[in-house]
Amino acid sequence: MVSLADGTELGSVEHVYLDPTRKLIVAFSFQSGGGLFGGKARSLVDVADVHAIGPDAITITDAAAVRSEMAIGDRCHGLIELDDLLKRKVMTERGEHLGQLTAIHFEQGSYRVSSIEVSHGRLHPETTSIPAAQLGQIGDDLILVTDPVPAPVMDQGASPVSSRRTTGRAGSRGRAETPSASSVCRTKAGSAASPSTSTIASSPSAPAGTAPTTRRVSSKSSGPATRATTSSCNPTSATRSAATRSPTASRTQTPLPRRHRPRYVAVRL
């Protein structure tokens, strides 16, 4: 503590007193030598008489602003020493323990608390800075801070973009087109002069060592155009469907064996 009036060093700062309600520094106490049997006297300086707080000393305008030790009890009633405050735990209003207070930052000139730093323990050397706006009640055991503002949440009504392809064909508008990986069925419609062909490819998930088989069912049509359709990818059902729906296929039959042919007897009149 240094007096600017005569440039004398009054003593060394002992305690810094904080008003927990207004959250600002209100007074400093310091010790000065020269007492009986080498003892030191305690004095008090109000923050209103402080000229500046530097990194190495606190300067005051005049030594007449120094109060005696008897005034410390009356002036510091209800105040908190920063040394005691640094030992307290910091907890949120939801009951989450954040750590222990390690440092307090003040605004130059007003001496109000601007922020505090909280340590998470020896295993976590990093500290968390909490602004003064989040400071709540400063009690005898704990320092309460308000919960941080949660991050904005996305609109739940927004539908995610589908990665499936959609077709714009008539009758299937907005329907997703997902071809099957196990089987592929293709149907081609021919004209009056071209044959109607239905190609069926078997599933690739055949037993090991067996080559996938491909069956082709074709039917020639001499009349109107005929479309051969299949309801599934079963080769048997596709063959039956093509044989029953095509009029030409119904006429073409496999010739009977020789032994089953009818015998004709010639009769002379």
UniProtKB/TrEMBL annotation:
Residues 215-234 have a biased composition (Polar residues). Residues 189-214, 235-255 have a biased composition (Low complexity). Residues 80-147 form the PRC-barrel domain. Residues 150-269 are annotated as: Disordered. SUPFAM superfamilies: PRC-barrel domain. Gene3D superfamilies: PRC-barrel domain. This is PRC-barrel domain-containing protein. The lineage of its organism: Bacteria, Pseudomonadati, Thermomicrobiota, Thermomicrobia, Thermomicrobiales.
